[in-house]
Amino acid sequence: MDETAAAIEDLYRERYARFRSGVAPVAGSYEAAHDAVQEGFARALRSSVQYSGRGSLEGWVWRIVLRTALEQRRPGEEASLDEIDPAFVEPERDFALTSAVQTLPPQRRLVVFLRYFADLPYRTIAEALEIDEGTVAATLAQARQALAETLEREGARP
Amino acid sequence: MTETIDHLIQARFDAVAGLPPEGDWADVLARTGSAGHRRHIPTRLALAAAVAVVAVTATAVAFGLPQTFVDFFSSPAAPEQVKNFFGSQNVAAPSGMSPDAIPGEARKITTATFDANHVHPTRPTLHTLYVAPRKGGGFCYLWTNYSGGCDDASSSPTYARTHPAPRSLGIDWLAMDYPLAVSGWVRTGAAKTVEARFADDTTVTIPVTWVSQPIDAGFFVYPVPSAHLTRADALASVVALDANGHVVGRQDFPLTKPLDEDVVQTLPDGTKYSLPRRARAAHARKIVSFRATDGSQVYLWLMPRTGGGVCYLFSQGFGCADPRLAADEPPFNGGMSGGKSRILFFGRAKPEVATVELRYQNGESERLTPIDGFLLHEITPAHYEHGTRLVAAVALDQSGKAIVTQHFQPQESGLYPCKKPIDRGYGVKECP
């Protein structure tokens, strides 16, 4: 077994739960997220020789898994991470939080989901979405402020 | 400040996330179309797996039934996150109610592939059964991403007094107009098989995974077949049978009353909540609304209950009062709801209660007047510290005579907010 494949397996065993949680808002359900993670990791294994070593392996796998989730949601369409429109899978569990997140633009929403559901560091979010790390930091700062304000307004302080 | 907000937002996200799920690496490998990435399995584990397979095959043939037998002590240890789950159930339980599971002894028993979302079926996913023994006997179990619980055997003298004979069968079920799925356990002993009985008089033997001592129980999960997802052919009961076919444990399933189903409803102010259909949220009226000392909004809505009575929804809870049960209820019944940064006192009072006096350890008191039979009041931070906490709520009639006194334990931990929570282990932090 080559080193990259072994690292992918380690990543899966260590972070499966985070992958599923982070992908669920894109996939639409936890079941669909599980399927996207399974298929995404299988694709990563099949194409492990294509991993260049530039950027983290985790960021590379995240890109594959997110694209897989998008493809499964829109079969037959070209998957572009720019078109992601993520949403809470179970909005009824916290309507105030759902409403607050829903006021954010889709890309910013995804950054928030990856940060708080997948517990990803800024650098990995940047690699996964192919954006600058500074953009991630700025986006999270704005999103954080917007969330705090919205939740405060609704009398549901974070 | 940013870190604090970040931490608080993270807590909100954590609260809406479900139990940590489990992956299935074998499935990933299968999807690659190659077994070439499979890692070497340590000999000891491989041998144990081989023995388990042989044992299972032998017993299944011998009994001619869909049953498997697992030796608990030969089963693999549960991963840390599962041990933490069992541990957190112990430390998070109210005083005297800990299930006393032994997290370090939790083991992986079996896996099953089924669709956990029976209401809106999607596709089957892998679920793992973990079981942990309890101190003093018995067990707790967890089907990942599905259900869990503990048996009702307990060494507690109080429990033994009220439950002289522990049940032989424990069932969880999910139902709409009819049961969609059942899961549970059956105690080893007289019970030999578990059977599903349907309204059309057909029966099916439910496969059981029997686990050896110290668990001494069998476990099962049974999604009801689609042919029986009608009221006429619904699952009517699950029974445990002895070797002679006699019923030794039974759970019947009365058809669920649709009025008790939770549905998303909208209050007159546009807020949405998941409430039983019986609660008529569209006709709700807000009788209490104030801002707590932590800045959060506190509210209490009352709404008519179909069939009589009233339902209430407040910042930290929901319930309905059934008029048929009113005669058995005390004139006043109150309780505290803790939170991270506030604590509320909520109570229901019968018409004879004119005021309720809250009495604190330091001799202070407050008099509250019920509104339409309800009370919702903030216990302010001035009463968080030991020595200042609530000790009693006294319901008084119009003449000032005490009708009923309710006592509270000021030493109860985990209720009052604090600045420095104590780490109780397994990821649980609690205020003293």
Greatest interface and its participating residue counts: A-B, 43 and 47 residues
Alpha carbon gap, first and last residue of chain B: 25 Å
Structural category of chain B is mainly beta
- What is the N-to-C succession of helices and strands of chain A? HHHHHHH
Question: Considering DSSP H and I runs of 4 or more, what fraction of the residues of chain B is helical?
Answer: 10-25%
Mean pLDDT of chain A: 81
CATH topology of chain A, what is it called? Butyryl-CoA Dehydrogenase, subunit A, domain 3
- In whole angstroms, how far apart are the ends of chain A? 46 Å
Number of domains of chain B: 2
Considering DSSP H and I runs of 4 or more, what fraction of the residues of chain A is helical? Answer: 55-70%
Supply the number of helical segments of chain A. 7
In one word, what is the shape of chain A? globular
> How much strand of chain B?
35-45%
Can you tell me the number of structural domains of chain A?
A: 1
Largest sheet of chain A: none
* Strand proportion of chain A: under 5%
Secondary-structure content class of chain A: mainly alpha
Low-confidence stretches of chain A: none
